[in-house]
Amino acid sequence: MEELLDVLDGFLPQGPQLFPEDMVTDQPERQMMAEILRGEAAALPGQGDPHGTAVEITKFSERDDEVIEIDATIYCEKNSHKGIIIGKGGAMLKKVSSLARQDMERFMGTKVYLHYLAARLKEGEEVVFPPMPPPGAPGGGTLPPSVPGMMDKKDM
Q: Contact, 39 vs 51, CB < 8 A?
């Protein structure tokens, strides 16, 4: 593979660097949070076709204590998908919420509070799972240092 890359490199012209070196995506943070959540939902055993789900971030804001608050809805094409995502007693939705929140925190470099997560059929039926308590509340975790450059809902 390395040899192939070296050969191809000889045919490619050098150009200006168009993006900062530390820029990992051109997508807005809100879209990245939706994709992280969708990825966790699609990775569930038995989920089947990940194209049958979509995620809408309905709230994305940074609080005064620099914690990012997110509300989201997972839309399912089929009732069977919704059942898999929710799981028995909401167990799978809780797992999706927890894993996605951890990935979001790594991506954003700050604490994320996934305040509201719902699974709905595209027609509108809804099941809500209230995830973890907010940071600072019993069982809510600790607060991270400030991360500059976070976007607020009004900025989108």
A: no
CB count, 10 Å around CB of 155? 12
Report which of 78, 115, 99 is spatially closest to residue 91, judged by C-alpha positions.
99
Residue 131, phi then psi, degrees to nearest 5? -75, -130
What's residue 51's pLDDT?
62
Are 126 and 95 in contact, with CB atoms under 8 Å apart? no
SS3 label, residue 118: strand
Q: Which of 73, 51, 76, 50 is nearest to 60 (CA)?
A: 73
Residues of the chain with pLDDT under 70: 46-51, 123-156
Answer for the pair 110, 147: CB distance below 8 angstroms, yes or no: yes
pTM of the model: 0.65
Spell out the residues 6+ positions from residue 63 whose beta carbon is closer than 8 angstroms to its own: 69
Kindly list the distances between the CA atom of residue 17 and the CA atoms of 20, 21, 25, 26, 49, in Å, as whole numbers in the listed order.
Answer: 8, 8, 15, 14, 38
Residue 81, H or E segment? helix 79-86
Q: What one-character DSSP code corresponds to residue 145?
A: P
Q: How far is 77 from 119, CA to CA, in rounded Å?
A: 11
